[in-house]
């Protein structure tokens, strides 16, 4: 057996780029081995069996070998079940991928993260409201990374009141405030009703989704730093996040 060989691991392709003359570097998210890079040797050759397989948003089963940072793809099998993305759905899918490429740690087994991504891709493939899928993904991703905000209790330890207004900052419980015209930098103002809906996982109302977008953008921007997400800018241009 080859060293470090792994067989038939559920995985998704997050990103590919040319490598040497005929190969590809493939960034993957696997169920039991997390996110890492594979080299797919000869994948760019015209007759390679891999050319039509190593596509984003397609459930795959991968086998590879090697213990170094750059492992070698051995076999890729298509598991089926998800149609090819196009248009706004495609951009939304790339947004999920870009978030994982920027935030998911490398070589960290994360079966719950894989389950979240798999569920989100399959939901996105259906006839759904894209913003709903993205907001759920963002909130659950923040929770899995350990940055889930407190939503049901405020900074004073009191239960959030639906008719009150709250100031939200990264890493802090919401703070109940009187109505103010503009929140301070690196914060957002949200009504208690939206916080309670988000705590219950209820994104049914358009206002809740808009408020969820304010909150997740605030939190994600702290984690992402100064470099903007290319897909977010494109989504904003296409109004794909607007209700």
TrEMBL record:
Keyword DNA damage set for record: yes
Transmembrane segments annotated in the record for this chain: none
Domain DNA replication/recombination mediator RecO N-terminal, chain residue ranges per copy: 8-78
Gene3D superfamilies according to UniProt: Nucleic acid-binding proteins, Recombination protein O, C-terminal domain
InterPro entries noted in UniProt: ARFGAP/RecO, DNA_rep/recomb_RecO_N, NA-bd_OB-fold, RecO, RecO_C
Keyword list, A-Z: DNA damage, DNA recombination, DNA repair
Pfam families to which the protein is assigned, alphabetical: RecO_C, RecO_N
Family: Belongs to the RecO family.
Function: Involved in DNA repair and RecF pathway recombination.
NCBIfam families found in the cross-reference section: reco
Protein name: DNA repair protein RecO
Species in which this protein is naturally found: Vogesella facilis
Gene: recO
């Amino acid at each position: 057996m080859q060293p470090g060989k792994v067989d038939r691991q559920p995985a998704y392709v997050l990103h590919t780029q040319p490598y040497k003359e005929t190969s590809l570097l493939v960034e993957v998210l696997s169920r039991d081995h997390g996110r890492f890079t594979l080299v797919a040797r000869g994948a760019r050759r015209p007759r390679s069996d891999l050319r039509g397989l190593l596509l984003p948003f397609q459930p795959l089963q991968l086998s590879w070998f090697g213990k170094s940072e750059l492992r070698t793809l051995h076999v890729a099998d298509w598991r089926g079940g998800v149609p090819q993305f196009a248009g706004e759905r495609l951009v939304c899918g790339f947004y999920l991928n870009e978030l994982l490429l920027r935030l998911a740690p490398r070589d960290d087994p994360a079966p719950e993260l894989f389950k979240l991504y798999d569920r989100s891709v399959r939901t996105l493939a259906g006839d759904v409201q894209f913003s709903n899928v993205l907001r759920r993904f963002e909130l659950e991703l923040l929770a899995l990374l350990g940055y889930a905000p407190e939503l049901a209790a405020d900074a004073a330890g009191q239960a959030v009141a639906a008719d009150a207004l709250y100031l939200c900052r990264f890493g802090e419980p919401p703070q109940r405030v009187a109505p103010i015209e503009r929140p301070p930098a690196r914060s957002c103002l949200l009504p208690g009703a939206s916080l309670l809906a988000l705590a219950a996982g209820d994104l049914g109302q358009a206002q809740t989704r808009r408020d969820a977008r304010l909150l997740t953008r605030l939190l994600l921007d702290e984690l992402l730093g100064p470099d903007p997400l290319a897909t977010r800018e494109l989504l904003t241009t296409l109004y794909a996040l607007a209700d």
